[in-house]
Amino acid sequence: MKAAAVQMDIKILAREYNLDRILNRLDQAAGAGAKLVVFPECALSGYCFVSREEAAPVAEEIPGPSTERILAAAQALDCTVVVGLLERAGDQIFNSAAVITPQGILGTYRKLHLPCLGIDWHAALGDKPFPVFATPQGTIGISICYDCSFPEPGRILKLNGAQILVIPTNWPLGSDTWLHTPPVRATENHIYVIACDRVGEERGFRFAGHSQIVDCTGAKLAEAGETEETILYAEIDPASADRNRVIREPGVWEFDRIANRRPEMYGALTGLPDTP
């Protein structure tokens, strides 16, 4: 199955402009055979907001006008889309990602870990921990940007059945997260990782690019550069993420990073006493 990560520039407070470009890139990616297409964090809105009030006009409920247009495109193109946006729910705004398939809008993931940067100064803490989405292309879990700096979300998503970890992100230039984190999350969880970053500059921040698609061994199947708008493509086999046992040499060198865990020894994480 061909997956795509759309590395693109985004204009703040320009939802219709960004949406038109998303739909154009989606058409392009699907035309190249991609069945799963991932867009960056806050792809519809931009990121560097100075207040919740400034962000409010480009936040929308889900389903809403933008996600309905993306749904119509996903149905016409027969592909699944993960797109970052600001989600309005009551009087709160979440930094979210929507999962949209030809069968409908499956739901959203809301960013759990919020750094002191951009919209995350003003957004509500995510309240939908670790959902997984069964799509025609495989089972997807999501971490948004700073979420992937923590090992726990990726592991929980893997244990909940995710085959693909999607990371919509806005890594700023100067961060080295892009260099280390996607391969590590892929390797430690035996899971595919699709990290989709943005490029360009917004209110003094430049973004790092380096979107990438990584296989279950941590090998980078595709990686973009720092500045260019581009669409990355890679062939992936989501079902292989379920085959956790790695056999380098039968009977000599075999391991399974899921089966070989020792949860009874992880009291500091589980809140339970260690029981050797």
Description:
With about 280 residues, the protein is an alpha/beta fold. It has 6 helices and 16 strands. Strand 4 (about 90-100) and strand 5 form a beta hairpin. Helix 1 runs parallel beside helix 3 (about 65-75). The protein starts with a strand and ends in a 6-residue tail after the last helix.
Chain-wise SSE layout:
Blueprint lengths: L1 E6 L7 H17 L4 E3 L13 H4 L9 H13 L2 E10 L2 E10 L2 E7 L21 E4 L2 E5 L8 H9 L4 E5 L8 H13 L2 E5 L4 E2 L2 E2 L5 E3 L5 E4 L6 E6 L9 E5 L3 E4 L10 H4 L6
Parallel strand pairs: 1-2, 2-3, 7-8, 8-9
Antiparallel strand pairs: 1-14, 3-4, 4-5, 6-7, 9-12, 10-11, 12-13, 15-16
Helix pairs in contact: 1-3
For this entry, give a set of tags.
22% helix; 276 residues; 6-stranded mixed β-sheet; alpha/beta; globular; 6 helices
